[in-house]
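Morning, I've got a small favour to ask if you have a moment. I owe you a coffee for this, so here goes:
>
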Amino acid sequence: MFEGMYTALVTPFAQDGSVDYGALDRLVDAQIEGGVDGIVPVGTTGESPTLDPEEHMAVIEHVVQRADGKAKVIAGTGANSTAEALELTRRAIDLGVDGTLQVTPYYNKPSQAGLIRHFTAIADLGTPVVLYNVPGRTGREIAVPTVAELSKHPQITAQKDAGGSVDRVSEIVRECEIEVLSGDDALALPMMAVGGVGVISVAANLIPGPMTEMIRAALEGDFETALALHLRYHRLFSHMFLNSNPIPVKAALAMMGWIEEVYRLPLCEIDAENRRVLEATMREVDLVH
């Protein structure tokens, strides 16, 4: 259902800190022109923790309307409160999303039984769910047996895995009836080599066309083309995490003139040395001159 190249979209802000919907339109248009399969607004890359509920919904609505069926929209509606995740998901469903991205509840560190009940409650709303495993941010991994149990639910169709382990993806592909999307651009191709079906990409904000070409080549079994693109952009993939995501990708988009470099606290500007490294990498791949 969700194989392919999906962009983890940034949320651009104006200088006064408000959501810059004009810049958001330009970003969505660039993704569609790049041929992406889908767009994922208000996830980690979209700075969802600093958006209030009304802004959260407004960004989703705007992306759905701007995409206008040309790309699927998987909305980030996860939370560490099941009640909050259910409310956000209900509202996103009403806006016409194709699916929702559900992060592992963070900070309160539920048991695996709690995770099953949490994700099942959301899936019972009747819209496809993409599980989001990112233990480095949440403090809790979705164990492979838990993924296997959840994958029996007809609406739990995919998992975004940002656990940094190709071995783990191999286990999931072997043990579970679920699509696996990489949550790490640098591991997208290795994960696809063992059965993953795509990526939810940070770097695609900058290079939607090349990322789409790489993923489609891999899906078609053309690993020579996919590897060439992976190697060309590998340093860029890595440098999207010089600081916490989305700081580097927003700095890069600002260098390209696509957005204002504005964050909401506690996130702030990239430090000077990492900015120098990032700009050099951008020059290497002809994104700035």
